[in-house]
Amino acid sequence: MSNAREFELPYEEKWNGTTIRLVDGDITRFSADILVNVKVGYGPSPSHSDRFCWAGGTEVVEAYERLCNEPGLRPGRVLVTVPGLLPARTLIHALGPEQFPKTSQERRELEACVTLSMQLADHLGCGSVAFAVGAEAFCGEGGKRSAGLTLGYLKRSIAAAELPSTG
Fold first, then answer.
1. Coil, helix or strand at residue 81
2. pLDDT in tens, 33-72
3. How many structural domains comprise the chain?
4. Cβ(124)–Cβ(26) under 8 Å?
5. In a domain? residue 166
6. Which residue range(s) make up the domain with 119?
7. What are 80's strand-pairing partners?
8. How far apart are CA 148 and CA 155, in angstroms?
9. What is the H or E stretch that residue 36 is in?
10. DSSP characters for 106-146?
């Protein structure tokens, strides 16, 4: 889906038996095997507004900080942590660009972290994945625009993996 106005958030679709949800706002209220937070402007410690890390508790914050200090960390990568107190088996911190993607490089970074998140979810054999998109994930730029990009990248990564749509 290329036009973000074609759907409302939260958006849900099934692929190959996996339920994929795009949610705007507080993803910590959703339950899924994997919760994915598309992060913009990440740093070596979670910011005060990073509800995803803080809601998971000390275990998630410490794991995130430890992984953020690994060499080679850059936009387009993902960090995987324990869920801590959140209702999931696994947390994925998808490291997007520094701002809402405006350049082709920033769009490639966003696509890379979304694609890696889906590949991990597929590898882990999960039944449900929830992606946090929207104003919170993209610094106020608007949930529907970022959700449209994220959904497009999700569909592209699933098509590349040749996973048939079931819904």
1. strand
2. 999 987 776 666 776 557 788 899 999 999 988 888 888 8
3. 1
4. no
5. no
6. 4-160
7. 92
8. 11
9. strand 34-39
10. HHHHHHHHHHHHHHHHHHTT-SEEEEEESTTTTTTS-HHHH
